[in-house]
Structure formats: structure tokens, C-alpha cells
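Hi team,

Below is the intake form for ABC transporter ATP-binding protein from Rhizobium puerariae. Please confirm the fields before the structure is written into the shared record.

FORM ID: S-0412
PROTEIN: ABC transporter ATP-binding protein
ORGANISM: Rhizobium puerariae
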Amino acid sequence: MQGLAIRELSKNFGGLHVARNLNVTLPPGCRTALIGPNGAGKTTFANLLTGVLQPSSGTIHLNGNDIGKLSESARVRAGIAKTFQITNLFRGLTVRENLRLPILEREGGAATIFGRADGYRDIEAEIAKLMDELHLTPLAEKVVRGLAYGQQRLVELALTLALRPKVLILDEPAAGVPTTDSHLIVAAIKRLPADLSVLIIEHDMELVFEVADKIIVLVNGAILMEGTPEEVTRDPRVRELYLGAGHD
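The structure came back. Fields below:
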């Protein structure tokens, strides 16, 4: 069992320390949440994992391979994928067409985006499987711009899963989703592949406590504590700095 291993990861902008000696392990199958107050460094941490930022020091290994100096696109190919706070979809295309794009790109067939020739039956089967797993099949031929926001977030999640990641970073998956639809996001997270490492960056504590088996609390770029949801809620520092105060 390997997964993602982050050791002594730091990021400085001149004299400003935005990530301080972070040590995090995301084994296969984990469901880990990253929480913290405004300015804690959650976005910086995600950007260091995905290659948007290069660390000042420290290492990032995926299944024993050093990926710390890889570009964003190379990290995606290595198995690091991230959803975003704002949906990034092709709004004029159907759900099925949206899902076809990352699969064709992954397989080197992006030039035939709208083709459904017999030679791509395996791709169509993969699309059908993704839609079934995320309960999107009834929406297959719907244009994305006409979907409810919660449904668009599910499509975005399906697009990310189409990349076949080993580590999935969910950046505020419930952001902008009406409370009445938040159960769709929770259910989708619970249905993710059992061997997939999942890091959830989220301020919706109900969602965090429902899906996470471990929580990391980040404050001022450093890890304050980590533990089970029960351990986190009992910690007086967390109650004072996060759970009882405003958060992003």
C-alpha cells in the first residue's frame, strides 16, 4: 500500500510562509478532509499537489515515484486529478459529449470528439458506466447549461473520474449547490471507487463529517492536528479556531 506521500512540504513567497513542513499520507481508499479557517493555506496545499505551484522544499511521491517537479499536465497523467470550486464544463454540449472529451483525450483520439464509430464502442461503454455510477444516465442527452447546478457538479466529477486518477482532490464539491441537492454530492462521494485516494477540501462540515474517515486541520500553513472526525470535534483548539468561527 503506497498512495500519495507528502514529506516536509513547504512553500515560501519571500518572507511569507504559506506552507510549513507539511507531512501528509493519502493511502489508497482513504477519504481525507482538509479543513481550516480563511488563509489557512488549503488552496496553496492543493496547488502544490497538482503542480500549479512548485514547492520551496519537501517531496511529493505517488506510489513511490517522485512527482514533485512534474508539470500540471504530467501530474494528471501520473494520476493526480482535481475538481474545482466553479464548474469547468462545456456548457453547450450534452452530458455524454462532455464525458467523451476527457476519455478521447486520454486515449489520444481527441480529433474525433463527436464520432461514435464502431471502433469506439469501448469508449461509449466507459461513458455509460460513468453515467450509471453517478446516476447521470437519465441526463445523458441533456445540454449541460440546462442542468441544475448540483447536477453540473456531478458531471464535473464524472469528467474528472474519466481521467482514471489514483488521487482525487475535491475542491469544495458542495460550493454553490443548494442545500436540497447536497445529498447528491454526498452520495456521489460515497460511490467513488474503493481504491481511490480522495482529499476533500470543504467548509461544509456536515458533508465532511458524513464522508471523511480522517480530517486534517490546517492553520497558518501548518497542520494543527489530524484525526478522526470524533477526535477533531473534541479538540478545543479546533473548536476555537475553526468550528466555532467563520471559515471559507
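SUMMARY LINE: The chain is about 35% helix and 25% strand.

Thanks, M.
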